[in-house]
């Protein structure tokens, strides 16, 4: 490995480069690291979603929440039948309809394919974004915690609550270097049948990727633009880098708009 120009690049990326070789295979250490990363990714997918802990964290922040489930009765069926994760079970649908109101936005925390990501990153991101929206006069629905959820479940949640915009904070499919990556999917006028092209996505939210503060800033900016322009998706471009920071990381407060 001495003098290999690829070796110096390892400090800049978590990708598996400059691993070396032992004969026709990998050296022992990189092989063991690969097997560990693979195990961590599998564990992230199958980790039980601790909705109770998330609800407790939200309540400590003074935020009301609702707990719902998709039509997937268990993790195995959720993984084998993605369609079940895209619709609510009957009890959850009725509970959301009972909470129907006139809301500018609904915020959803969902397990997705990495409950680990939701456990680690969803609450602080949501808290920053929600405070920024509330300070601007937005009427935000109670936070929804969704179990066995796919992204499109947010469409039915937003529709049932009467929300103008829904943002789903959901665990992304784990990679071999990112078992705890959170994604945020934003949809204007959510309703069943929305296509992926009608959403905006903020991805790779984690300390080694997009920091939580920056993700919250991007989310708030996109939500403000979505309401102004009446759309989300491929026609709504992210130019949040050109906008002053909308959230303050030290105490969750706002910078002056």
Please give the structural blueprint:
Elements: H1 5-9, H2 28-46, H3 51-60, E1 65-69, H4 75-80, H5 90-98, E2 103-110, H6 115-135, E3 143-147, H7 153-161, E4 163-171, E5 182-188, E6 199-205, H8 212-229
Parallel strand pairs: 1-3, 2-3, 2-4
Antiparallel strand pairs: 4-5, 5-6
Summarize the structure.
The chain has 257 residues and is an alpha/beta fold. 38% of the residues lie in helices and 16% in strands.
Describe the structure in your own words.
This protein has 257 residues and is of the alpha/beta class. It has a single domain, classed as Rossmann fold (3-Layer(aba) Sandwich), CATH 3.40.50.11240. The chain is built from eight helices and six strands. Strands 1-3-2-4-5-6 form a six-stranded mixed sheet, sandwiched between helices. The longest helix has 21 residues, at 115-135. The chain is globular and about 65 Å long.
Using brief descriptors, characterize the structure shown.
six-stranded mixed β-sheet; 257 residues
The CATH homologous superfamily is named Ethanolamine ammonia-lyase light chain (EutC)
Q: What is the CATH C level class, in words? A: Alpha Beta
**DSSP, total strands:** 6
Order of helices and strands: HHHEHHEHEHEEEH
The assigned structural class equals alpha/beta
Q: Round the mean pLDDT to the nearest integer and report it.
A: 93
| Helical run tally | 8
Uncertain segments: 251-257
Q: Give the strand line-up of the largest sheet.
A: 1-3-2-4-5-6
Proportion of residues in helical segments? 25-40%
The second-level CATH architecture is 3-Layer(aba) Sandwich
Number of structurally distinct domains: 1
**Which radius of gyration do the C-alpha atoms yield?**
20 Å
Major sheet: size, sense and barrel closure? Answer: 6 strands, mixed
In whole angstroms, the N-to-C terminal distance is 52 Å
Overall geometric form: globular
The portion of residues forming beta strands comes to 15-25%
């Amino acid at each position: 490995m001495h003098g290999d120009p690829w070796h110096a690049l390892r400090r800049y990326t978590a990708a598996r480069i400059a691993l070396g070789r032992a004969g026709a295979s990998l050296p022992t250490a990189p092989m063991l690291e690969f097997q560990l990363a693979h195990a961590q990714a599998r564990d992230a997918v199958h980790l039980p979603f601790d909705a109770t802990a998330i609800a407790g964290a939200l309540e400590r922040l003074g935020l009301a929440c609702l707990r719902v489930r998709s039509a997937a009765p268990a993790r195995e069926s959720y993984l084998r039948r993605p369609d079940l994760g895209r619709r609510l079970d009957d009890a959850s649908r009725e509970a959301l309809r009972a909470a129907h109101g006139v809301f500018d936005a609904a915020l959803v925390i969902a397990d997705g394919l990495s409950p680990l990501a939701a456990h680690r990153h969803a609450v602080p991101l949501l808290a920053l974004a929600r405070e920024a929206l509330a300070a601007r006069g937005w009427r935000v629905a109670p936070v929804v915690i969704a179990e066995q959820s796919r992204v499109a479940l947010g469409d039915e949640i937003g529709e049932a609550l009467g929300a103008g915009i829904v943002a789903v904070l959901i665990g992304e499919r784990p990679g071999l270097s990112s078992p705890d990556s959170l994604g945020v999917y934003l949809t204007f006028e959510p309703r069943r049948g929305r296509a992926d092209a009608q959403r905006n996505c903020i991805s790779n939210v984690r300390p080694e990727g997009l920091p939580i503060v920056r993700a919250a800033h991007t989310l708030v900016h996109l939500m403000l633009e979505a309401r102004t322009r009446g759309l989300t998706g491929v026609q709504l471009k992210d130019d949040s880098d050109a906008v002053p920071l909308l959230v303050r990381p030290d105490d969750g407060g706002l910078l002056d708009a």
